[in-house]
Amino acid sequence: MTIITRPRDEAADSEVPTGQAAHHMDMNPIDLGRIEALQVLDEHGNINQARDPGLNDSELLAVHRAMVLTRAFDSRMLTMQRQGEMGTFAPNLGQEACMIGQVWELTKQDWFSPSYRSFGAQIQRGWPMERLFLLWSGYHQGFPPPEGVNDMPFSIVIGSHVLPAVGIAMGMRRRDDNDCVVVNFGDGAMSQGAVSEAFNFAMVDRAPVIFVCENNGWAISTPTKLQYATDHLAGRGVAFGLSSIRVDGNDILGMIAAMREATRRARDGEGPTFVEAVTYRMSLHTTADDPTVYRDSAESEPWESRCPIIRFQRYLEGRGLLSKDGAEKVRSEADAEVLEARERFRKIAKARPREVFDHLYKVTPSELEDQRNEYLSRLDRKGVD
Amino acid sequence: MTIITRPRDEAADSEVPTGQAAHHMDMNPIDLGRIEALQVLDEHGNINQARDPGLNDSELLAVHRAMVLTRAFDSRMLTMQRQGEMGTFAPNLGQEACMIGQVWELTKQDWFSPSYRSFGAQIQRGWPMERLFLLWSGYHQGFPPPEGVNDMPFSIVIGSHVLPAVGIAMGMRRRDDNDCVVVNFGDGAMSQGAVSEAFNFAMVDRAPVIFVCENNGWAISTPTKLQYATDHLAGRGVAFGLSSIRVDGNDILGMIAAMREATRRARDGEGPTFVEAVTYRMSLHTTADDPTVYRDSAESEPWESRCPIIRFQRYLEGRGLLSKDGAEKVRSEADAEVLEARERFRKIAKARPREVFDHLYKVTPSELEDQRNEYLSRLDRKGVD
Amino acid sequence: MPQKTMVEALNLALDEAMSADESVLIMGQDVGVNGGVFRVTKGLHEQYGRDRVMDTPLAECGIIGTAVGMAVYGLKPVVEIQFSGFTMQAFDQIEQNMARLHNRTMGRFPMRMVLRTPYGGGIRAVEHHSESRETYWAHTPGLKVVIPSGPRNARALLAAAIDDPDPVIFYEPKAVYRAFREDVPEERETLPIGTSQVVREGKDLTLISYGAMMRPAREAMEDLIDEHGIDIELIDLLTISPMDGETLCKSVAKTGRCVIVHEGHRTCGIASEIIARINEGAFEYLEAPIKRLTGYDIPFPYFQTEQYFLPDADDIIESVRETMAWE
Amino acid sequence: MPQKTMVEALNLALDEAMSADESVLIMGQDVGVNGGVFRVTKGLHEQYGRDRVMDTPLAECGIIGTAVGMAVYGLKPVVEIQFSGFTMQAFDQIEQNMARLHNRTMGRFPMRMVLRTPYGGGIRAVEHHSESRETYWAHTPGLKVVIPSGPRNARALLAAAIDDPDPVIFYEPKAVYRAFREDVPEERETLPIGTSQVVREGKDLTLISYGAMMRPAREAMEDLIDEHGIDIELIDLLTISPMDGETLCKSVAKTGRCVIVHEGHRTCGIASEIIARINEGAFEYLEAPIKRLTGYDIPFPYFQTEQYFLPDADDIIESVRETMAWE
Ligand SMILES: Cc1ncc(C[n+]2csc(CCOP(=O)(O)OP(=O)(O)O)c2C)c(N)n1
Ligand SMILES: Cc1ncc(C[n+]2csc(CCOP(=O)(O)OP(=O)(O)O)c2C)c(N)n1
Ligand SMILES: [Mg+2]
Ligand SMILES: [Mg+2]
Predict the structure, then answer these.
(1) Predicted ipTM?
(2) pLDDT digits over D22-56, tens only?
(3) Which of the ends of chain D has fewer CB neighbours closer than 10 A, N or C?
(4) Residue D188 belongs to a domain
């Protein structure tokens, strides 16, 4: 595997920490090293055998189904939003390989901390789709991760969830188990100082966390060229001592290969990893956004040929695992699954205004009880239940 | 000059900014490059001719005097503090070459944004020593930079002054003059997310700012090994695209050489530079600190042989510019100068409690006038004027 | 006079300021080609170029921190933070530099800058997009805090904020952004910062509000006058800090009764400060406890329930009647 | 009972909590070998090791942010921020995660953590080292805010804060750290969070304060009783939020007069909230305006002038006498 390993590898706690140990300055130039670019399955369906994570047939088909389901969910959400049944949300069209790839290697005990654009990954992690519908249509009940799913609620404030994810991993390291944490964010999030702090804390503590940056070229209307002044983001990890890699984020096998190595490192106590996944936001930033104002179709269109699902389908066809009809069947089954979830969602979607005070504290303080009573009598007066 | 230049050099505003331009992923590994380690004058007095900034004799002597004055001021402050005439302050013993070197190349129009440990640089920039005495003994009048000195007040909150310094440089770039900004901070400050943000803003805007990190091995009791997990900090600059270099911070000629190149780049529109100056905090963190609690003298003592003043004195002696007696004379003159400043300080040091409302706003709002009147009548009652 | 939404009125004020003064510049996320996510800066990028209408990296602390430096250098940055909830990311720069640099340097450096940001609920947004935390800024010495309630005063107050020699937090009620149009004069207009406006004089009860809550307050006022015969004096705070205590106390000294309405949380909210001022300045005239109708001390709820969190005209009417009935 | 300073008493509470519960851990700058810059964590590093007493990198946002994650994971981090002025660097994590994660997840994850930090003036420190901004936290739903005034209640309240299932901001009055010793019992002791303490009962006037200001308040009380025959009821707030409005209102309902003393700035300060509560809960008993004796709305002054900024016993006496004279 080609994820670079930092030269200095002693554990932070292996010896008495010192300040400036060497009183003679090392006059050798510092070689910052190289960062590998990883792609397993290229646009033409060729596979790099040396890097192939070697999924078996049923795994390959499951990965495919998961990506298709993500897309089906995404497009249903869009319809529902246009029809007024859904609030503003952020489509993940074109990023399905990142979605599935980043959580594929995780166990139930591992943790995942999603961004607002991660519902594909959330479904894969075991969030019922009806809960995601609830979430994006403004019901509080959509927010908490389901029992048995060790996920954080999705993050709205860019970058604000990255440090807590590191904290979970720091807790894991202290409890000495073999679990790890994956935290996901965008290219824009890399500008938040808190994310740099997170890299540093993770590395200093040798916490088992994997940072996955989906570099999709844009942060709303801000292109990467105005977001940062390098040709890549992967070097940010190296700056803090993290093992880092740049992956083709539209290549599901590349994503899985990178995550396999990164999770192994985490589990083996080798510390955190930074994965820059290069992808593209094919759709709107959110349903409140109009990309035609700020970006040329000349830029987006070529990306259509890099579609992660089509590329992978072609590969499965080549391997004789999936026919054209088979692919169509997967798609229509996924649609049906989403529609069933929508039915369940419609049954349970119910605003619960009487509960808005209930979860702030573990034990509601009496002064807040007074406010709750005031609020409830307002609801009574308005005839709301 | 060996300051590395980043591969990508097009100005941020040279073309229409794009998101993910290339729709074929570049599969070449990313070479992060090398960072040079710079030393002009080594511990034994040998000089690296190729890197010598070539100061003339009077310049060399002026540099020496400035370092000696810094140390004289520092030790006088310590005495005054121990005698109760001065508040808590942060000595800069051993960091005199950083102090003088980082501002040596600056003009009056350039700006300097100091940390709390930068009074050597502040004196060099033209702050009257009596003002620094005022500052460190708790008089508001010590804070504002003197007229004609384009400096920010010293920074107390670690890292909080770095973004404003970048802002000044962004203003300069917009006004199209040839000035630049130097901002100074420690190894601990590098952990603040705001400093990473500052690197990014500076590089994206191609602002003429030079970041000088005095890596002195410690942040209070926290050694660099617990502060970050790499062998150097210089790579942090590279991660954001900054030209970066690691300098022997106890070598005044190395510091000047690095700053000469960095300021030239800034003035020529080549953007920001990051300078990691490797040095050592020989003394207390502040006068409230007791380093014997947390650090071994076995670590500190070898650093005495790297004293920036002794090293430079030996060089000047070798060049026949300074005799032992001459050095002694410089030292006693510096002491005398400091004592004169102390006299001036003692004459002007006067608390002005009646003025604490005067400078918050340009025009004091009437509601604050009411509070001021209340306060003033309290002072009247207490007989304070 | 042309009819404008608040968004258009704000855009006009920015345009006027930029064309009149070269040192005014705009910074923020997506303020350039995109014209801001609410389109307040629309068209300015084309007109004034990328260096004066700057799309910044995604870092609020970075935006405010560099804007502070620009202000020190003599420029006049007008910063947009996309939602007021994200000003938390820049709290340190606001509290430590923006609010204090003028004082720290005893006035040696100017600190002319405006932080514009949409605040408040009512647009069915996700968490962190509906905050009203003006208390944080009102409690921070060195800042001024301004909140307009309609297109016309928004334009006039933003012009005044950019003129102001001191740093201003300019909270824009996003629920009002496109809610209605108002006549906005063609010629430049300003309103004094630090002065509240008596929207209607009355003698029975002083109703105090600001920002987006002025709409239900007006609605309630009409109803209270027409249906209940209560002669309301309505005050639009406009500037939150420095607070125009004089206008408030004068009014309550006349009416003896008072109801205060805001979205922000109750504890240490703006209403508590108003009550403290009236206690100090008009105690002897008070005939009933002053009523606080405010956001509760819970996070702004998810949008299916936000309507019940926000005070409405009905709630205001109820509060006023309760306060009138007190004896 | 052994006599302890507040620093020693806090150290005792931490030691007890750590030895009783493996999931308690300490994080902060210089809390390890150095024992904290005020020595509150002295000796704990040797006893509990580097993983439970963690010297962090110099980044407050990083400290609070990772502590939040640890709390989600079921640990109980007790974080030290070196001076409360530097909590601004972590404002986003406090407001967006520490205060809200429990609510966001409808209680799915615990959020047991304590943020300890020294606050207030009086130790001749430089700028940013004397802040009293408890209003920020009191105005933030989801947090509890506790401020002890002496060694014994500091130990008992810190124990309670670490026990508390919800996140607590624990402000330590640094002027009291070593100012005096007090009997602190050997056996573990807690005090309920959310309850204020009537330090002395009296019938003429309610004097309310907390933290470091309790010392001049006590001094003034003695003098007022002895020299002026004014029968003071003195209340130590102890918990700032949730506020014990009941105790306050009950007291003022009895005395009819009230003076509130704190270091924090006036506008939207804690005193304004207390006034608002008394206005709501004891309006009819008030015989005079409630007096606020607080920090002014200016940054904490440089140390040669700080003594004039801080209220002292003399100022309290004056305020009480003024309030008694009001009619
Ligand atoms: C702190 C903060 N600032 C601003 C926003 C508004 N905002 C939402 S998404 C977004 C762009 C994020 O870009 P990126 O990190 O690249 O993720 P992407 O949307 O491309 O997946 C912005 C600015 C926010 N949510 N949080
Ligand atoms: C934001 C912030 N956190 C903590 C402190 C307290 N503090 C003052 S100096 C210091 C260490 C700084 O170390 P470094 O940046 O390496 O600079 P040095 O003191 O070594 O010059 C700390 C933690 C502070 N001033 N500001
Ligand atoms: Mg993006
Ligand atoms: Mg240091």
Answers:
(1) 0.97
(2) 999 999 999 999 999 999 999 999 999 999 999 99
(3) C
(4) no
